[in-house]
Every structure is written in structure tokens, then in C-alpha cells.
């Protein structure tokens, strides 16, 4: 194996089943790369997608997986064949898949287990809702040929289409200047291990990849931006559930405080909006008493209202993170 694509997932059966097809359509022989899918305690039909793989097999896996023994429920390995994507003419190829089912543990633990379970020296990170172009793996491999101390960052384009996701075009909101963002990136496995892996103190959504990026940068790594395309499924704008948006952004605000306590740098403070008092007060006024949580769906004025819900959740998460840090609940 030349590369291992690590994909953490939780209750995303419908989208993941479509995403897998695009790895079968890679312009690279199937035996040269593998998928490592880490199922973080899914309760939907995700396990059924991989039930035809071989029974539990831990041979050849990194001994460090033993530290996670109590969290791992199932390991299955084998050849996986998917239906080809409709918009790609070429036939799908069989791919090698390692499926690891774990108890619900969070994104950092899931990715760490994926790294240790990987058989290849190069780790590619992607999400379970990222559709990849046919040369995705090939381009990542090529980018590392003459750049040993590097993180390779591809481009993530938001797409509203499940039927033809690769038809989307780059937009301003797709701009990403992060040193490491795990939606579309690749890093040598040894470098990840030596940098300390993903910090498992990030138990909820947000910032764990930025944290690892700082450690890699401290070790002399560079971040190379390359035209390697992944397409993030972003459902068409319509009505949205404010409770779901609020919860996700509150988690991200909470982990922003943890991120800053780990790395009290000026750019981290500014980037995470930890001291944006004026904006926080304005959003607090617009979203006072979290009135939007009384609604199951919001359809009208969805753009501005979505921003209010997002920022209100984010700043509420920051407030909670600060309170818990002061009380010593966050070490």
C-alpha cells in the first residue's frame, strides 16, 4: 500500500455509501491504497455497509492499537466493490477496506485509531461527506514525492448535489488557509505519531486538526496547497433545524477555548474570536433568550437567521468553555 485514506464516520450511512463509490473510481490501482473507515459508534445502518468484509483480523496492525482495545468493537478487512458513480464513465474498481467499529469516543480518538490501523506510510484524511475526484489519491501521492517535510492540503468545494457532486465550482466560501484541515489533507504517518497524534481532549466538534497542525509546524513541516479536489456535500439551502446548527456551533465555541489554552497565541485568539466583545454583544441581543430554539424549522430569511443561530451557539460555547476552564474542569 502507498496510501491509507482515514475516514471517521458517525451515523452517515446514506451519504457515506455514495462517497465510497468515488474511491472505487480512482485512477490508481486498487491495491495501491486502502480506506480505513472508523465508525465512531454509529447506531444507523453504517455497519451493514461493511458486513461482507472478512471477520475480525488484527494481523499486521500497529501494536499501538492495543491501547484502544477496550474502545474497539469490531475490525473487518477485505476487498470492497461499489457501484460506479453515475457521472463517471469508467467502471469502479475493487478497493481494500479496513473497517473499525468503536464505541462513541469523538473525532480525535477515531482519527488516532484510524492512523494506527492504517497499513501505509502516507495518511490521507477525508470526511464521510467528501466526494473525491478520480485522481484524488494519485495527486496526494505525487505531491509528497519530493516534499518529505510537508502537509499537503487539497481544496474542498461545497456542493449541493448528491447525484452529481463533482459538478460544483469553487466559491469564495470554499477558501481555506488552514495549515491542516482534515477534510482533504495528507501527512506522513510517522510525522503524525511523532507530533503526538490528535489531542483526545477535543471530545466534541472543532479545532483538533488545527491543534495537530501547530505541532507539525513546530517540527519544521510546511503546508503545501495543491489543486486536489474534494467536494463537501452541503444540502441545498432551505429550511434548517436551528437546534442542530446551534448545538454544533456551541461545541466548536467550547473547543475554541480548549484550543487557546493549549496554544495561547495571538493569531489563535483572533481567529477563534475569543475577544470579540462587540460582535458577541450584538449577536447576544439578536438571539437573546435563544428564541430560535423554540422552532423546529426556520425557512424564511434563512441566510441571516442561520448566521445568528451559528454565532449565538459559538459564543455560548465560548462562555461555557471559559466557565469550565476557570473552575478547573478543563485541565
Structure, explained:
The chain has about 325 residues and is of the alpha/beta class. It folds into two domains: about 5-235, Spore Coat Polysaccharide Biosynthesis Protein SpsA, Chain A, CATH 3.90.550.10; about 240-325, no CATH class. Helices cover about 35% and strands about 20% of the residues. The chain has nine helices and nine strands. The protein has helices at about 15-25, 105-115, 135-145, 190-195, 210-220, 240-260, 265-270, 275-285, 300-325, and strands spanning about 5-10, 35-40, 70-80, 95-100, 120-125, 130, 150-160, 185-190, 220-235. Strands 3-4-2-1-5-8-7-9-6 form a nine-stranded mixed sheet. Strand 1 (about 5-10), helix 1 (about 15-25) and strand 2 (about 35-40) form a beta-alpha-beta unit. Helix 6 packs across helix 9 and helix 8 crosses helix 9 (about 300-325). The chain is globular, with a radius of gyration of 20 Å. It starts with a strand and ends in a 5-residue tail after the last helix. The mean pLDDT is about 90.
